[in-house]
Amino acid sequence: MNPSPQIPDWLGVAASVLLVGIAVVASSWARLGLTRDLVWAALRAFVQLLAVGALLTILFDRAGLLGALAWVTGMVVIAGFVAAGRSPELPRRRPTAWVGVGAGVATTLGVLLVLGVIEPTPSVVVPVGGMVVSGSMTATNLTMRRLADIAHQQRPDIEARLALGMTGGEAMTPHLRQGVKTALLPAIDSTKVVGLIALPGAMTGLILAGVEPIVAIRYQIVVMYMLLAAAAVSAIVAAHLTRRALFDDADRLYRVTPPA
């Protein structure tokens, strides 16, 4: 393996703007009306990554484990805002999203650190934490979104169960399982086909850095398992919190109306 792989310089980064141009041209040709969104997304990504790169340089040089965990905590807060924003009609959506994402991240990252699977250094904890937060956010988002749809579409069925004397938890149990299963499908499917359809990001990055493929595979196995665990914990926690938020103290189902 080449110990010093070629890394794009700033001229290469500028040349990659051509790819954004291709996306813009394709969007315009198809009359999708996404030209402004594509350009704005590309500009935001450039500025955000520059800022994050500068901050991470300082963090890696001067901060210890506590600084890294504080950074991950900040990512959890932002992820909670994003996940909650997809289900504005749900009661107590932000606390639900924060706890859901946080539970998945704390459980997964905590196990990896306690067992010594990853090094307790910012240069390791922050990138790994970012992957876990992303997976937890997706699972939380999908769970909350699915349960919001169920509460709206299946309201007659749920209220019929309540009329038979069931509690809110009992009336929602079948739908709760359905919501969690739906949220976990992306993580399960990704785990099933890892390496067959595409080389995942962590493995690709290590190979590009000159690491032997068999070593990169070991790291990727850990990554896939931690993402699966984070998604499962976040989905289950978010589902139970969402279910509790959908009913008042008298087990009456709140009216959930999807945004127009």
Describe, in plain words, how this protein is organized in 3D.
Helix 2 (17-29) packs antiparallel against helix 3 (35-62), helix 8 (168-193) packs antiparallel against helix 10 (213-245) and helix 9 (201-208) packs antiparallel against helix 10 (213-245). The protein folds into two domains: 1-62, no CATH class; 64-245, no CATH class. The model has no long low-confidence stretch (mean pLDDT 86). It has 260 residues and is an all-alpha fold. The protein is globular, with a radius of gyration of 21 Å. It is built from ten helices and no strands. The longest helix is centred in the C-terminal third of the chain and has 33 residues, at 213-245. Helices cover 76% and strands 0% of the residues.
Using the CA coordinates, give the radius of gyration. 21 Å
Helical amount among residues, as a percent range? over 70%
- Spans of at least 5 consecutive residues with low confidence: none
The coarse silhouette is: globular
The biggest beta sheet, please?
Answer: none
Strand content: under 5%
For the record, the count of structural domains works out to: 2
Q: What's the structural blueprint in terms of helices and strands?
A:
Layout: H1 10-15, H2 17-29, H3 35-62, H4 65-85, H5 93-114, H6 122-153, H7 155-163, H8 168-193, H9 201-208, H10 213-245
